[in-house]
Amino acid sequence: MGSYGRLATRALDTDVPVMVKILELGQSAKDALPLGQCPMISDPYAHVEGSFSRVGFYLSRCILSHQSYPDMIQGAVYWKPPEEALEKVKQVAWEPSTSRYGTHEGLPELTEALVNKLCHENKLRNSGVMVTAGSNQGFLNLVLTLCDVADSVVLFAPYFFNAYMSFQMTGINNILVGPSNPTTLLPDADWLEEKLSESKPVPKLVSIVNPGNPSGICIPEPLLQVSLSLSHTHTHTHTETKTNISTFAHPHTPAHACVCHNSTSTCFTQRISDICRRAGSWLVVDNAYEYFVYDDFKHSCVEGNHVINLFSFSKAYGIMGWRVGYIAYSLEAEGLRTQLLKVQDNIAICAPMISQRVALGCLEAGHEWVKIQVKHLLRNKELLTKALSPLGEDAIKGCEGAIYLWAKLPDKYPNDFEVVCWFAQKHGVMLLPGSACGVPGCIRITYGMLRETECEVAAKRLRSGLEELIREGMVG
Ligand SMILES: Cc1ncc(COP(=O)(O)O)c(C=O)c1O
Description:
With about 475 residues, the chain is an alpha/beta fold. The chain is about 40% helix and about 10% strand. A hairpin with an 8-residue loop joins β10 (about 430-435) and β11. Pyridoxal-5'-phosphate (PLP) binds near residues 314 and 320.
């Protein structure tokens, strides 16, 4: 048997992440030729591998053929971390503790600051914290802690592709992909209720992302939700409830844990949470884009002993490469903390110490600093939304928050891979095919990596590409 046959099926059966391919192929192409020259090489993946590789190949050609290609594919931001956070690194680099292992849950000063932040900003008043090397590692930790391979899990399409792959990579193949409301792109709560009540055994974990990647949806706050629920065909209660979480002594409650009374409004997320609680499923909410809300939207969280919230420093503070995220887990969930510690000890042991120091510096700059950066993205959002207008208003869905626009291609282009390759080759624009998120025939556009001038170029290219696509098809 060749070595290929000796590789794990769980790895072989997992799609090659589109980002891995793009970076890999882009790099090898760059190494081979100076930037700006378009190599006339044939597509080596045409018949060999899956379509992700083909997208990667064409996108790498895009990198080569357009000196300044606007990056609308990578879920990242263009800004640098707060200066004071970086200044800290200089001071702490030589401290012996920076080079040693830290505690599994994170630097005590950082976890303390995070518990405080969760309590005051997110109203999560009964949550412990585990700092991870980015929230992707946090999600994987959770999958390993909560799910067995025989379990089923739930995602909603369009889903965050890394979440899907975390399940695949850990051998969990029973991934139930639920629909989203065709107009709002909000997860279909009625479908969830039905699925969780009829599936035996009940799905172990339900995952939602708010604000959404790739959809950009923002799950509305209670007031907005009331008006949404009125137009919803199914009825469900949206009353205001007061939940009093009494102070309790958990054997592992950290000394600085913020345990206090909580006032929670019943809203959309709360309904999802209630459905999960009743069924006995875990609810994992990914809040990586909590600060990326525009106009009047307000991000909010839910708490419960079956709910786990994930957060990331990456985009908010522009520290993607430092790799810091955190899990906010319920202190009431019996045994959870101990099992999380086991997983953490076998993967990262602790998040990089120097990165945790940077994260602490970021927290000191605070969410007001983040909001100033995020405000600059509004113009990008506007420019690119306008550029999508040849597709028609109804084609653009979600898009309220995060750094993403989600659009449906005309019906005659169900093969989004082909369209994305064509855009890369012909128009020097990199887009993510909706198929990567479980919804073919759509595209995701990222606007976080572009400064305004770059965005203007991107918007022009996108618009002229779309006009050509609609007028003449994928010619040239
Ligand atoms: C929804 C969502 N969660 C998590 C991540 C990963 O974040 P991190 O850099 O903290 O691992 C991303 C990155 O794109 C994301 O979009």
